[in-house]
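Give me the fold.
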Amino acid sequence: KDETAVPELVTAYKPREALPPTEPPDASQVDAAWKSMRDHFVMPLPEWNSEDVDITEWKPNETENQFVSNLFSVTSMPRSFMGVVAGWRRAGAFAAGRGDLLPEEPEPQVQPLPELKEEPAEPVPDPKAKAKPKADSKAKAKAKGQPAEEAPEKPTTMQQYADCNYQGEARVVSQAEFRSRDLLLDLDDATPQLSQAIASQFAAVAEHRLLLPRGTFLWELIYPQDEEGIPLFNPHGKYIVKLFVQGKWRKVLVDDVVPIGYAMHGNNMYAPLLPTSNDNNIIWPQLLAKALLQAFQDDLGVPILPCISALTGWMPYQLPFSWTGLQGLKSVRTFCSLQFSSQVDFEARQRAELIPTIPQAEANARKSLAANQQVLPLTVQGVPEQNLKLGSQPVEAVLEFLICETEEEPRQVRLKADAFVPQHGTPRKQVRDAGSEEEDASADAGINEQPTQIDEEVDDSDRDDLDEDDDRSQNTPSGDAEGTEKRTDQDESVNGEGQEEPKADEEEEQVEDSMPWVPPWPDTNPAPLMMKSSIQEFQAQLEGGQWVSFDELETSANCLCSYIPPGDHVLSASLDTCWGGERAEAYLPPPTRLLRIRLALQELDQSPPRSRAESADAKPVPGPPLFQTVFFYEPLRPNYRLDESPPPPTPCSCVLQAINNWRPTSSSSRKQVLEPPSSINLTVGDGTPSSGSVFQSMLLPPGEHWYLINDDAAEQAGSVLSISVESLLLNSSKSCVEFLEPEKALARYGTSALSIGPVHYPVHTGYNVLAKAEIQIAEEHLQCLQLLCHVTDPALWPYIQLSCLQVSQLDASDEDKARSASWSVTTLMKSPVLRVMSLPLIDKAAGAAKYVLMLEANLPQEVIPKSTGELSLQLFIPAGSNPLETDLDTGTADKDKDTTEDTTQEEGPLQLHMLTVDQVLRWQGECHENDKGLVLCERITVPPETGDVTSTLRVSVDGLPQAFLRATLVAQMPPTEEMRPPNPEGAPLEPLVAGAPINPRDFSGRRNWLSRCKKVAETSGLEIISFPHVLLAEASTYILYVHLDEFRGPAGLEGGTWLLESFGSGSLEVGSDAMEQDLEELVRRSWADGVPQDGDAPPRSETAAAARESWLTARSKDSEAEAEAENEELKQLAEAFERTKKVKHPNSTIAKFLSGHADTPALLIQEDPYIVAPDRPEWKPSEDTDGTADETRAEDTEAAVAVKAMGTQGESEARAEEIEIATARWSSAHESLEAAKERNASQIQELRQWREERRAAPGGVEGTSFAPTRRELRGLLHSRMEKCAILKVAVLDEKRTDPEPLRVALSEAEDAGSRNYDLKLVESATKKLRVLDAAVSFQEALTSMESKAEAETAAVAAVAAAEEGSESYTQAKEAATTAEEEAASAAKALEELLAEFKASMKEEPMEKAADILKQRSAVAAESSEAAECVEPDAT
């Protein structure tokens, strides 16, 4: 009781309060963003549904407010088309009121989608109120015994038309046309090119009237229809057209408002611009054309629309244009076409313009009134209207011509598109006989008979008769006189000229009274390949047309197109990801899909083995067949129909990447000779003009092919991707084309795919961990891990990052290693998330490897994710070259195999364990200056009974720009039993409680505490550091140190704050670590007076005093011994001095030295001759003056006099000038540095703005394509290298002595820019070319000199042989003189070339030239002696 009470230690550690959860951003901004995008993309057409069409509200009796479609806009029409548009009228106006009598309709305009109606929130029920059951009308009716009320059924089409009171003459199609399928179009060359192209495709479809099944022929696609399938006229103006677009049959809702232009002549001012019938009462061509324009209104800039496939559903297959392909295609296909330009017959049009029509129309009107006693529709003048013709100039257009017939000698093709004439077309066939071209007289009738020879030239009198025949044949589909009924001539009226119309009515009544009509059309589509006899029979019915030589077609036509009918013989699949419906929800991109194409050949009967002789003579066995495949891609493009000036379209691509290595290879696949294409690129919008869809035809070998679909449009608003494969030679039970989810496709081969997610990420900004998973991979599968990522919000792709971490568990059996420090994490990869990724897995350690995949996002403030966003990650190990145990080609069909088998994750080589990251905790603190540069030192404690916690720790600082941080995570293990001090009474120590605070006394000092701290992780970064994955053991303590690296950034901590974030699976306790402070406090208290130590030890102050006293005692003893030794040494020295005084040294030098150092005292008498002059004092005004200095007093001071006397004033001024220069130089450098910083910041801001603009644009950054420029540059560089290689060979090859190839190679290399690439090579080539040119000139001069020398020698010999004075002597002398002059000239030229080429020539030619010159000099000397008139040659 008498002892002083020792207070217990109160630790300085205090846990921090976690920050409250951050409020999520306002989701209304996200909703407003996607709602504003509803009209940004075009709406897809709805799929066809016969039941919905039958109960559509047609309103046939409502004629006041007629139907107007809001899905078609004139802004999408071509300028060439709109240039001839005079207005818009109803298609039935020409039958009801004749054009200008009816009011003009406004131009069609697209209307935006109606705004979404916000559903009222459900009222919150009152918990106190008694719940009342909802009233159930069906239950009440059942209780009363009455039938329950059901929703009224919508009336069908025939029920709506039962009360229709329309009495007009307008019809969609006449019954005669419907039952005969005869095409009665009124063709006009003055209509725009677009209309002519559509009409030509109408004609091509009509030629196959006997092959198309019921319900798929032109007008049979128009609704409403009666029970027989005949389209009904709707006075309300509302129609639905069935078209095969976007890979499916879809419905197009149209009105009957069509464009019109100014008529050429007649009483009516207007004529229709779209294809029309020769009967103005028939409106099916205009309705069908209007539906096609509306369906393809984003593609109207292309020359010709794909109307044939839209009208029939047949698959177009394109192949390069060639005569062999044309012959082979025509022999097996019934529907082959060619795009070619038309030709206008100007003479026939001029004759039509001059025909008078008004009097004849009046006469026909009177006859009709008298016969029928009924009033015909009249114009303003009271006469019926004639067939309308446009007054504009004729237009040549690119049309779709049907290939009818081919001729081998000479090569020519008969093309037909109703009455349109192809370029360079002639109605007669050209033949060759003995080198002359002849015409087939039977070509007008379209019959292939033996041609009769006619004269090639026709005089003008016969040409008029031929023109009349050609006029009739070109204006009729069949080419004969009977075709005049199908197309009215200019001298007849529109309605059949008077009494012919009642005859048609009588015929229709007779047909109705007869037996029921049975349509002769087939119920299904024909086979794609037909017998030769059937093909010939069909081609024999194709009458008329024009013959065009193959040479003309080859120069203009690019490709052939054959149409394959749909059916069981065609494998097809379609992937529709379009943002459709009412768009009441935000568009969510679909996950990545896999295209599986499996082409299994039919099992053919094996023939018996052949003998050796037969096999030797037999033809080689052909390889496996290739199958015609068509890929169709159409994305939903931006909707520019609401813009007056739409921007140019941006390209959009869909890439199909081959991934056959993802599945095991079967035996048949390993034997496969032909390989499919490694990638298929479908790009839309990169042409001029650009098209909104793309067809691509190719040949695929048999086998199984996998393609991964990477669609740009899937991130915007979706697209339609369709694939069709002709499967005549395939086993239908084993072949398929389908779009699958990758995990289902892999499950068929026993490869399990694990999924992370789908994870619903929260609406947030800033940093967040979205998902984390732990993966364990068996040792034998440590090859490569394949990942497929999917994010439903495309705006998040640039900000999501994937980290792959390898987790290693250390051996914790050692006593020094506790479980809290027995792990380590290594970062293998950190990369932005891609849709398809591969992670290489290489682990040298034996056994299974454990990895952690983490998805994190750091979103800026301006990017807010969608509230319904999801994120998923699929991972699997590709099979690669692993063989397949069972061959699928020999097994049963797996087309309908159930792939939803339950594959547990533990059975496969991959084991997945999802880690929780929903516990988000944040702590914040301030930075304080300290000598250690410590930003924070936080103790992290895992509470007991919560289990181990996995977490991502992230530290960020604010207010410390460019601060470089170094972080270390340390595990603080509890003290060992040896460290803990014993109890004073000898009682055993209480065991440590896991998770309880540790008393600093238990460590018995700082050194023991440091030995129990083990570093488990460290990292560094600029302003932000993070530990991607930490394993915090239950009831363990960790210390997080974050230091400031003053060598890589600023060293100050003043004004800074830090933020610690934890994204983990459990709660944590965080507080400033005070273990060092607590240990220091223990040391201080142990020094306090009266504080007892542990056990029986005296207080620490007494122990310290005793220790100091003993130390001082020992030190004093040592000092006395040192003093005695020093005194002894001095005594011995003094004795030595005394001895030297008594004895004089015999050496005088030594004696003087000893005297000077022993007897004479030391004295310094030398003075410094230099005076250090002071600096010039700084002038300061005195306090009692007004600021002016006293110059006299300043000059009289001692310092001033010394400065002037010693000359240091100039030195001071020089120093001051140097300081000024250095200051100016530093200021200039500082200004340059600041300007550079501002310039860099401005340029970085411009780059960010450009990036944001590109991201905001449709297609994003990925839409920007530099591929053409890169390809062009690569081609130029490749060409330069090739030219340099050619030039190098020509220079270095010694055998190449011809200068011309070298000159050409040098010129081409310089044009390619080789001088910039290899200047030395160009200079060498130039030198060699100069040498070769000189060699050629020298060789020519040498040859000339030899001949001249021989001539001179002969001439001199002739002079010597002739008799002097004779006539022959005179002639010989003149010849000798001439020869000598020529030889002298040649010798001079040879000398000049020899001097130039002397260094480059070999010795032999030089010696030869020298010998020739010597011989020539000798000859000259002899001639001078023989003939005095010959002057001596100086040479």
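The mean pLDDT is 75.
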